[in-house]
Design goal:
The protein is of the alpha+beta class. The chain has one domain. It is 30% helix and 14% strand. The chain is built from eleven helices and eleven strands. The strands form four sheets. Strands 6-7-10-11 form a four-stranded antiparallel sheet. Strands 5-8-9 form a three-stranded antiparallel sheet, with helices on one face. It has a two-stranded antiparallel ribbon with strand order 1-2. Helix 4 runs antiparallel to helix 5. The longest helix is centred in the last third of the chain and has 23 residues.
Length: 318
Amino acid sequence: MAAWRVAVPSLLIGLMVLCGCSSEQATDEGSTPKASRSSATAVQESASPEAGDGSPMELPGQSRATDAAAPSASETRAAAEREAGGGRHAAADASDAGGSDASDTEAAEASDFPLTEDGRFLIDGRWRAPVAIMGRVPSRSVAENAPGYEPPNDPEAESVLRGRREVPPNDMQLTGGFESAAELAEEVLAAAIAGDTDRLTAARVTYEEFEGLLWYEFPQSRPITNIKPEDAFGFLFRECGEGIRHGIQEAAGRDLELTGIGFASPEEGGGLAEYTNFNLLQGIQFHTLTPEGDLVVLEFARTFVEKDGVWKVYIYKD
């Protein structure tokens, strides 16, 4: 019982990391993941509050099912208030997803992006992104009612509700990125139309950027989960490969003009999520027009990451 309580095989963890990139056929994309494919089957996740019921974990950026457990505004505010010196994130975490109240004003003053009157972030001065739902209400372990059960020692359990770990400033920069979300979207669309997997691969984060800048802010990286960054990136790599293929299938050879960037609702995983050292723009939708004026919405470039004004793709998703 104790061993089962400490670690539960996570057979679906690859789906969680889908948030990022991926695809088991990604070997033709011009780069090789640092994680060995055999190690993926050995990844285990702890029976921590977020995975104690054996449900698959999800990394930030993955579209959220509408019935997924997400913290209410009051729960998120409570988590923010518990943070010591939470800075801009205490205000941002306390905002209702897409809501408009006093906490929105605090978030606007502290955020990297201006907040509109209806409680949305203004991206590139043009695109209105909702405030993303960060974190989730921890699920309960199926072992809690068992005789002699003791909860796992998880000092960072509140990061699950908060949606991010508390980390110090990180000076690492994104390399080879773009100066705006619109420029990145134009490049991704042009590469998909050209059927160029190399260009699409070059536009996404590298393993070094994932491991050195992104991974350790996610609650899934806390020690109790026993998940290594190379294993998580391996799943993302495979998911991204599938997303790249899907994008090419949808756009290759077509005459499409990018007219705007839209977003899924916060309940479906969309919006801007602010972390200590970077931002994730989630649930992205490319709004394009054909020469006949027909609207075509593409959703394969699911999540962008921004750091100090530099943009790259974090997740391609089928």
